[in-house]
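Budget justification, computational time. The allocation requested in the original proposal was used primarily to generate structure tokens for proteins on the priority list. As evidence of use, we reproduce two of the resulting records. The first is shown immediately below.
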Amino acid sequence: MLVALAANLVIAVAKAVGGLLAGSPALLSEAAHSVADSLNEVFLLAALHRSRRPADRRHPFGYGKERFFWSLLAAVGIFVMGGCFSFLQGIEALRNGAEETFGGYVAGLIVLGVALLAEGTSLLRALHQVRRQGGKGGLRDPALRTVVAEDGTAVLGVTLAIIGMALHMITGQVVWEASASLAIGGLLVYVAYRLGRDARDQLIGEAADPELTDRIRNLLRAQPEIDSVEALFTMQMGLDCVMVAARIDLAPGLDSEKVEEISVRIKRSIARTVPEADQVFLDVTDRRTERKRESPAATGERGGA
């Protein structure tokens, strides 16, 4: 992430200077894109720092969801600073045109070429980190997922800008460069929407990975003292933090001390098998007692076959 931040800052300055000197809407759109990416990297660094704070009385489940919150802000930044500015640049170029000299074209293309090299290097570094963290599973980290999305979008955006500038230089029609700005804006809005939707789901309270949930369910069902698992709920509280709440029906004839001993053993077994499950809650029920309590004879209601 530090590599991505350094690359974005350098590229943002180069694009902005080149865009102003050349009067290129596509290059200015890419400058806004890089500025948005740089600000977002700061957001994500704050997320990494704040999400590692230990739990306290005010936040007993810890601060793991800080990553999701700052990822949402990063998505908003991409939409506002990158997407909207790119749309404005494209519309302005279509309305008023853009006068560029041959030297401006060449300077702009050189800047974009250097940017493509830097963005590509940053993307490869991010993909390498994803592989180190387990391939596709590494993308569960919202900060790393945002970096990969930003770098991938940056490479595609720079490519669009190069194509737009080259066609403008060849044909003399500004519509090509304006279209490139609009395409960059549309791309950024789409990426912002996807990142924002993922962060929203995680902030609301997204269930853990289905495979992890199935492992916990199978572990509970394998316990000889458990007759059935009535309900199992999971919630992702952070990157490597899952809350588990299960309603289980135990075998009959167990006294209270035995039930407590079994509950402690099951919780330890879950924590040992699934290290992410650091918060485990078990609700022990008795289906036979509940059925008697709900029967017409127990409630005083009339009816029945």
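The second record produced under the same allocation is shown here.
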Amino acid sequence: MRRQQLRAPHAGSPAETLRNLLAVQSQEFPYARWTLAQRCQPHAGVTAADVEQAVADGAILRTHILRPTWHFVHRDDLGWLMGLSADRLHQGNKGMYRQTGLDQEVAARSGNVLARAVEGGAHKTREELAAILGAAGLPSKGLPFIYQLMHAEISRILVSGAPVRSSGGALKQTYALFDERITGSTGGPLTGTDREQALGQLALRYFASRGPATVKDCAAWSGLTMKDVKLGLEVARELAPGTLGSATFDGLEFHLASEEVEGLSGPPHEAALPRVDLIQCYDEYVMGYSQSRHYLGGTAPYLSTDNSPLHVVLVDGRLAGWWRHGFINGVCELDIRMDRPTTPDEDIALDAEVARYGSFLGLPTKRA
């Protein structure tokens, strides 16, 4: 939790949080704002609007990268990350490209239409781009439309623009021209030494921010092969000697920041009071791992009976319940379901976290 900045030392801004974590899963855009804000220094009072502004300014970008799924990525990192993973993303999407009729000719046509539509800072919503593609005789609905947008993102044509709000107040992403938001991108897949250096950077940033973690954890998170992750670890040790260390327990080798290795064998730190964290269902604290996720005490994201994901309650770092919110008459009501009855001290900690979430939203907040 300390390495992920859910505990001190915290980040000074949402962009700093993202630089530490490298990429943050963000299918649920409103909740992903909280992922960044809750890792910032408490006195900074980072709000949802602050994160939205960083996205509008282009310091934080939201696009399909890594596995692929939606991620927040810092603009300084997206170019090389795309160079490292774009080919694998296209390869993984090949079946859907065939199914939706997105061959090379259609991809080139739609890419040109989309680039012209957003050039010059003319950021557009998904609905606006659908209308433009439809007018050009290209798919504008369903999966064929969605995969045109994703193909354009992976091909460095589109990236997130400044978010806007609908007439009803819902937050909506826009799309911008990649080259107008990212400078210095190579424009193609990384090869040779450049690729090895990128693998080293990814391994260094992943294990320093999420360790202790395994090679398999990193491979699942990044979408890379275990062979690539192992090569990345070798390069990371050359790029930053002594930064990463390793430890073995339960028959598995874990990699982490070297300064944390000694603490693994010591007694756990006992806080005077329990600490409760409300994290979103795709938070990196749970989604940053696969092989070792069970150490957190449960599985996430958890799907409710209506198959919608519930967010995660942590008590002293372990999964202890689920939550989601709703809005009634300008008040945010949090439906919180614990796996067991809470103690009085845990109730105090839970109320404090609910209040912190309300400050982030800028709304009165209460438990339902």
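A brief technical remark on that second record: The chain is about 40% helix and 20% strand.
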